[in-house]
Amino acid sequence: MTRHTVKKGETLYIIAKKYGIDLSSLVSANPTIKNPGMIMPGQVINIPSTAAQRTIVIPRESYGYNEMQNDLNNLQEIYPFIQITSIGSTVMGRSIPAVKLGHGNKEVHYNGSFHANEWITTLLLMKFIEVYAKAYASGKKIGSFNIKSLFDSASLWVVPMVNPDGVQLVQGKIDTNTTVYTNAVQINRGSRDFSGWKANIRGVDLNDQFPAYWETEVSRRASSSPSPRDYPGTAPLSEPESRAMAQFTRSHNFRLVSAFHTQGEEIYWGYRGLEPSESRQIVNRFVEVSGYEAIQYVESDAGYKDWFIQEWRRPGFTIECGHGINPLPISQFWEIWGKVIGIFLMGIYV
Length: 350
Known about the structure:
Layout: E1 2-5, H1 12-19, H2 23-28, E2 44-47, H3 65-78, E3 83-89, E4 95-101, E5 106-112, H4 120-138, H5 147-153, E6 154-159, H6 164-170, H7 179-187, H8 214-220, H9 240-250, E7 254-262, E8 266-268, H10 278-290, E9 293-295, H11 304-312, E10 316-321, H12 333-349
Parallel strand pairs: 5-6, 5-7, 7-10, 8-9
Antiparallel strand pairs: 1-2, 3-4, 4-6, 8-10
């Protein structure tokens, strides 16, 4: 990031022209300047990189934790208004990043890759972070959505990858000389093909970990010990990743949450009659922009969305993207993107 010291007689417009960037990008790169018409000599301002013209998030096979972290670093360099923090660490000590875009009082939360072999949801969220930030920096709309207005009215918090260890395992990027890898192979019945693995590295399904009729979910699940999928663990929030998500959620005042999964092109929006009446109107808007099917109730408990609705009585959604067998092929990315970008934007707007 380049820094510029304001000289006598300079305005933001003059400085933008000097560096060959547009004025809206310069204003967006300096959110602490409350009045763009009043800058003082000696004041130091951020000059956004012209790299904003290039694409950072490239959909590709084996998009894992390191690729995500590199992209987040590059995006923050180009768009300094992006805030990145950590909500906690995984079993193997990987930091779980959370990304904030916007500065409005209304808080909205999206997450992806609760399940390891659903890592394409991380790519979808990362691409949205880039597209959303770029539109704000350039002062442009996305479709009919005024992005500056969304930034002003809402703060979007994204956890792109809840389960980094599991994603790395599925993609063959875990050190094979570790005890956790040896244990994972044993849990996987001796197979080193982890394409069917949903759980965290210890074989616990993170989306069966929340204290929302957890005991009922335990009795329903076939797995009674660590497994590639569907094992709820020994107790609610027994895993560091689920605890981090619970603590993160409790520390905010989210008006709405959406957990992105694959697959089925379905949106689950109710939980045991505890969802607010407005959830029906919101899911209908999601259906309009995506073509997905809205499903109010299923026989399932202990999920993140379930727990959120139970505890806060606010709108919560599980959105199943795409069609096929997990992990979905990267060839589906743009088809899925075309349907979920409307959900991303509508979730901030409503």
